[in-house]
Specification:
Number of helices: 13
Number of strands: 13
Family: Belongs to the Gfo/Idh/MocA family.
Protein name: Dehydrogenase
Pfam family, one: GFO_IDH_MocA
Number of domains: 2
Organism: Actinomadura harenae
GO molecular function: nucleotide binding; oxidoreductase activity
Helix content: 25-40%
Structural class: alpha/beta
CATH architecture of the largest domain: 2-Layer Sandwich
Oligomer: single chain
Distance between the termini: 37 Å
Length: 355
C-alpha cells in the first residue's frame, strides 16, 4: 500500500516511523510546508531494503515484517499528484480541513489527527463530502486504542461495575505549548479536554446532555491575551444521570498525567495509573515513584501504533472505521458547550450548540 503523509513535525515524524516499519506499507511519501523538514525525515527513515510484497490484511502484530520505501516531496500539493492509496494528515491544525477535503475528492481513505476542522461547520462539511464520496475518514483519538481505556470500556459494558455514578478524567501537561500555537489551537477545551470528552463517551457508551465549565489563568499571559485559559474543569451530566468530572491544565511540572477513573455501584477501575504516574503519596512523599512520562507521544506510544494499524486495515477494506467523523463531531459539540459555559458562566445544554 502506498501511503502519503502530510506533516513532518512532531506527531508527523512519529507516524512516519510507524508507517515506514509497517508490513502493510510498500511506499511512504512525505511532504511538509517546509520541504527541508520532509526531506530530512525521509532521509532518516529510508531503509536499506524495499518491500514490493502485496498488501496484507493481517494485523501488524502478526503480519511478516517488511520495510517501506520512503521519500520526501518538495510540496504538499505534489502528494495529491502522486495518487497514493491512502493519506495520513498530521499537518498544522488549520490545514486539516483543506487537506482532508482534497484527499476525499480523490476518493482516498484518510486518517487525520484531531480536529478535522477548526469549527463545527467545517466538520459538518467534511462529513457530507466523505459520505457523498463513500470514502472512510478516521479521526485521531488515540486514547480509544489505549489498552487501559479499552479495558475500562469492557468493564463498563460487561456490567462488572454495576450502574455508574461518577467518571473522572484528567489531562495534565507538564509545560505549556509555544505561545504562537495557542491562538490557532482552538483553546484548552477544544485542543486538550476534547480527548477527555471523547473518552467519556467511548468508555461509558453514553451521551453528555449538560455541562458546567470554568477556567483559570495562573501562568503565562499569552493564554489570557488570546482569550484562552491555561487550566479548566467541567462537570458533565450524562443521559443516564452519571456525572463526569474533568480537569485539564498546561502546567503540571510533576509530569504528564492522563487518567480515567470509572466508579460504579459494584466496583471501580482506573486507566492510566501506574508506577510512572506523577503523584506523590502522602505521608511517604515521592518514595517508589518512577520517571514520569515525558508527554503524550511516550505515554500513548502503543495506542498510536494500534491506531495506525486500524487505519491501514480500514484503507485496505478489511475492517470498519473505528472512529468516523461523526464521533469527532460529537466531541467537538461537547468542547463547544464547555467553552460557552466557561465564557458565560452558566450551565449549557449540549443541544444549544448543535447544528
Amino acid at each position: 500500500m502506498r501511503i502519503a503523509l502530510a506533516g513532518a513535525g512532531r506527531i508527523g515524524a512519529r507516524h512516519a516511523a510507524a508507517l515506514a516499519r509497517s508490513p502493510h506499507v510498500t511506499e511512504l511519501i512525505i511532504a511538509d510546508a517546509d520541504p527541508r523538514r520532509a526531506a530530512a525525515l525521509a532521509d532518516r527513515l529510508h531503509p536499506a531494503s524495499v518491500s514490493t510484497a502485496p498488501v496484507s490484511t493481517a494485523p501488524m502484530s502478526t503480519a511478516k515484517a517488511s520495510a517501506a520505501s520512503v521519500r520526501g516531496l518538495p510540496s504538499v500539493d505534489e502528494l495529491f499528484g502522486a495518487r497514493p492509496d491512502a493519506f495520513v494528515i498530521a499537518a498544522a491544525t488549520d490545514a486539516h480541513a483543506a487537506l482532508v477535503g482534497r484527499a476525499v475528492a480523490l476518493g482516498s481513505p484518510v486518517f487525520c489527527e484531531k480536529p478535522l476542522a477548526p469549527d463545527v461547520d467545517g466538520t459538518l462539511q467534511i462529513i457530507r463530502d466523505a459520505e457523498s464520496a463513500q470514502v472512510p475518514v478516521q479521526v485521531g483519538f488515540q486514547r480509544r486504542f489505549d489498552a487501559g481505556y479499552r479495558a475500562a470500556r469492557d468493564a463498563v459494558t460487561s456490567g462488572r461495575l454495576g450502574w455508574l455514578h461518577t467518571v473522572r478524567s484528567c489531562g495534565f501537561d507538564p509545560a505549556p505549548p509555544p505561545a504562537d500555537y495557542v491562538p490557532v489551537s482552538g483553546g484548552l477545551f477544544r485542543d486538550c479536554m476534547i480527548h477527555d470528552l471523547d473518552s467519556v463517551r467511548f468508555v461509558t457508551g453514553r451521551e453528555v446532555v449538560r455541562v458546567i465549565a470554568a477556567g483559570a489563568n495562573r501562568g503565562d499571559a499569552f493564554f489570557r491575551e488570546c482569550g484562552d485559559v491555561d487550566t479548566g474543569a467541567a462537570l458533565l451530566v450524562l443521559d443516564d444521570g452519571t456525572l463526569g468530572l474533568l480537569a485539564a491544565t498546561r502546567y503540571n511540572a510533576a509530569g504528564y498525567d492522563v487518567r480515567l477513573e470509572v466508579f460504579g455501584s459494584k466496583d471501580s477501575v482506573v486507566a492510566g495509573l501506574d508506577a510512572r504516574t506523577p503523584l506523590a503519596p502522602l505521608p511517604d512523599g515521592a518514595a517508589g515513584r518512577g520517571t514520569p512520562y515525558s508527554g503524550f507521544l511516550e505515554r500513548f506510544a502503543a495506542a498510536y501504533d494500534a491506531e495506525l494499524d486500524a487505519f491501514l486495515q480500514v484503507a485496505a477494506g478489511a475492517s470498519a472505521n473505528p472512529c468516523p467523523p461523526a464521533e469527532a463531531l460529537e466531541a467537538f459539540y461537547l468542547a463547544e458547550a464547555c467553552d460557552l459555559s466557561r465564557r458565560e458562566g452558566r450551565a449549557v445544554d449540549v443541544e444549544e450548540v448543535r447544528r
